[in-house]
Each structure stands twice: as structure tokens, then as C-alpha cells.
From TrEMBL:
Record Gene3D superfamilies: 1.10.8.730, P-loop containing nucleotide triphosphate hydrolases
One matching Pfam family: AAA_10
Keyword Cell membrane: no
Keywords: ATP-binding, Nucleotide-binding
Organism: Streptantibioticus ferralitis
Domain of life of the organism encoding this protein: Bacteria
Protein known as: ATP-binding protein
GO molecular function, one term: ATP binding
Keyword ATP-binding: yes
Amino acid sequence: MLDPISALTDAFTSLLFGKVETTRLPVRTSTGQAQAVYLPTAAPGLGDSGVIIGREVYSGKGYIYDPFQLYGQQLPAPHWLVLGESGNGKSALEKTYVLRQLRFRDRQVVVLDAQGEDGVGEWNLIAQQLGITPIRLDPMSALDGGIKLNPLDPSITTTGQLALLRTIIEVAMGRGLDERSGFALKVAHAHAVGSVTERQPILTDIVERLRHPAEVSAESMNVDIDDVRAWGLDVALVLDRLVDGDLRGMFDGPTTAGIDLDAPLIVFDLSHIDRNSIAMPILMAIVGVWLEHTWIRPDRVKRIFLVEEAWHIINSPFVAQLFQRLLKFGRRLGLSFVAVVHHLSDVVDGAAAKEAAAILKMASTRTVYAQKADEARATGRVLGLPRWAVEIIPTLTPGIAVWDVNGNVQVVKHLITEAERPLVYTDRAMTEASNTMERTEAEVALEKQLADDAVA
């Protein structure tokens, strides 16, 4: 009990300054006992079902991610954007992610492999390990019995064929088709498909019809036959590049028999194609439509479509529109689109800014590896990343990335098992990133767990 003087002092102090906080004696305890008194806190994870990616840097927890498990609950769309400069671990992440996804029975993956060394794509080792032969698209080998993909394959609907032909031409010309050229292409396609019955129609048939249009096509529009021929001249010149130009051999014949669309992994090796030429977006368009009509099926299989150097898609308005439709269509049939891009500025400041924004909006998962400070700030603005995440992106070391899964932002270190290392690191990748990734004892233990049950 307080003496009268102390009680009077407390009453006066409370009147002036409010009630004084109760003073408590300090608690003296051990570190072990304090763990139960002051519980540690960490941001919630994404659940415990799916593929183990690695561990969260700040909490040390295992980081598990699977767009098919999260779709509809924490993800509005299963699509994924991977960003970062070369040498920081993007390639290693993609490969281990695919290998771990394939541990599930209901998974299937298509990879557009646009990079390579020693004459093969960088996914060649993984394909060999799984007993799969990559579909190598190469103009030179195609002339000697190599792989061919037919844009007029009967497995593609006639509407799809015509849309694909228009996209090829618009990409090559860098502008949309006018009404007259579009009409000439439409009647040439209809005549070629309708008149060739003993074999698959091919691009040569379209070029022939454009050069020598049928009288009935002119009569149907009450125009002169010479006008129809003139309208289709530019179209014929563009398609002739696929028939008798620098891209000949790959698309001017029936689709090569024996392509196994039921294999767990399908690799399109585009490493022999100049990545900076107009050929790359044309290839992307043809492969994308061909897969849409021949690969994606309502059979409850969860499919992953991974595209290296994806700015070739997002930076072309016509190809971007095609893939935008594919993404919307694929969500109903269990398709996760994974786009790998070095710099976001490659696409948001390009010719297809509007289409790029639409595709980026559909990517509910964004993984960002190290970038320069200016690039990180620009990326943060476009993707809406929190300020703290933007500030640490330039400081990230190889193998560590900022993950934004529909607003759940974590810093994650990707872990690779000893069994995966020989498949994941090509010689070039080793010089870029792998030697700088040091492993702690905890990481080695987690790697052992991954080796035992990567998808447990």
C-alpha cells in the first residue's frame, strides 16, 4: 500500500498526464523457455500439396507451389511469368519444376526450347533421360527428311487453319491483312482444302491457288480474275518463304508421322532458328495453333506449356493475340502457361504493349530473379510488387527470387537435388550460375527429402 505522499503524487500525475502504465518486473528466463512465451511469426505459405520449390529465406519453411492445386482457391489463373537476367537460376528452376511435376501421373509438359549449345537445345539432356526424342525444327534437316509440321493438318479445323495462315502472313508482313488480300487467301484456302483429297493439303497448294485463282472464286464476288490474282500476290510471296525460301522444309509437307503427343514431355527444339529473326514468331504461331488443335484435350490431364524466350510471343501483336486466346481456352482444360522473359521492358515497351498487358494480367504467379535497380523499379510498377520486394530484387543472389503468387509475396531459395544437378546444369548454365550457389546443412537435408518424394 502506498504512503499518503506517494498516493497524492500518483493522483496528481494521473490528473495531468492520464493513468500511469503498470510497472512490471522483468522476466528472467532461458532461450528455450522463451520460445513458448514469445512465439515466432511468419507469413502463411501456399499449403502442403504440390511441388517443393525450395525454402523461404526469412522463415526457413519449405516452399511448395502447384498452380493446379491452388487454382480456384488462391489463384484466379494457373499461368506463370518468370523474369530475371541471365545467370541467376531461371533455367534451373524451370527444369527442376518440370521434372518434379512429371512425378504426378496426370501431368504432361510441352517445352519450346529456343536456346541451346553444341547443336542441341538445352532440354536435350532431360529428354534423353526420359527416353524422349526432341522435335527438332531445323530448315536444313527438314530438307533431308527432318521434322515437318503442316499448318493444313486435317487435325486442325478449317477455321483454325485459316486463322493460322493469316497470323503467319501478318507476322511476316508486320501489319494486318486488308480485306482484298484476306479474301484472296480465304478462297485459295477453301479451294485447296476442297480439291485435294488423296493426301494432306500443304502450303504449296495454297501458293498455287493464289497464283492461279479459280474462276469460280472471282465469279462468286462478281470481280475479274486478274483482280483476285493481284490481291493475293503479297500473300503468295510471304507463303513462298515457307515453301521455297529460308524456312522451307519445316512446314511445306504432311506432318511427320510418329510424333508422340501422349508422351509426358514434348520438347520442340528451336535452337537452330535465329532468335532475332522473323522466323521465330512465325514458328511460335504455327506450333501454338498446332498444339491447340492436336494436344489440348478434355481428358482431365493437367498440361504445362513452357516457352523459353517468350518475348517473341508477347512482342508480336498477332502472335500475342493468338496465345491470349490459347490461355483463355486452356484454363477450362487444365493448361498452365509458363512464360520465361529476361526483361519486362522487352515486352511492355514493344509493339504489342496492349496484348502484353493482357497476357501479363492472366499470369497470377510472377517469379522475379535479380535485376538492375532501374529494371527492378519498372518491373515493380508493372506487376504491382510491394516496395520492400522491389528494393531487394537488385541484391538477390543466384538461386533466390521474389515469388508473387496472387499477392502472397515471399523470398524463396530454389533447391536442387544431387540427382537433378547433372540434368539441370548444362556447361553454359554452370558458368552462369551454379557454382555460386552455396548449400547449408539444412538445404542438403531438404535436398535429400526432395530426392525421396519431390511431390509428397
